[in-house]
């Protein structure tokens, strides 16, 4: 469920959001993505290291990239 229009349709679960941060990546994700686009801040289900991400599970591709400074 998302209050955001998805660029290639489908469901939010069809996409991944990449976070580039040396620490606090979960907090950056919640602050910069979940708080803006999702009604419940804790509704995300999975977290992967980049090397462990199986992109075939997410046919929509990368939805956005958050870079922490």
Order of H and E elements: EHE
The tally of domains stands at 1
Kindly state the percentage of residues in helix: 10-25%
Shape estimate? globular
* Class by SSE composition: alpha+beta
Number of helices: 1
Over all CA atoms, what is the radius of gyration? 12 Å
Largest sheet: 2 strands, parallel
Question: pLDDT under 50 segments (min length 5)?
Answer: none
End-to-end span in angstroms? 28 Å
Strand content: 15-25%
The quaternary organization reads as single chain
Describe the structure.
It is a single chain. With 69 residues, the protein is α+β, with helices and mostly antiparallel strands. The chain has one domain (12-67). The protein contains one helix and two strands, in the order βαβ. A two-stranded parallel ribbon has the order 1-2. The mean pLDDT is 83.
Architecture blueprint of SSEs:
Blueprint lengths: L14 E6 L4 H13 L23 E7 L2
Parallel strand pairs: 1-2
Short structural description:
The protein is of the alpha+beta class and 69 residues long. The chain contains one helix and two strands, in the order E-H-E.
Essential attributes:
alpha+beta; 69 residues; globular; 19% helix; two-stranded parallel sheet; 19% strand
């Amino acid at each position: 469920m998302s209050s955001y229009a998805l660029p290639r349709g489908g469901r939010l679960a069809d996409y991944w959001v990449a976070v580039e941060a040396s620490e606090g990546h979960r907090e950056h994700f919640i602050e910069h993505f979940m708080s803006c686009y999702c009604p419940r801040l804790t509704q995300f289900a999975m977290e992967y290291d980049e090397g462990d991400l199986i992109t075939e599970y997410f046919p929509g591709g990368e939805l956005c990239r958050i870079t922490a400074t």
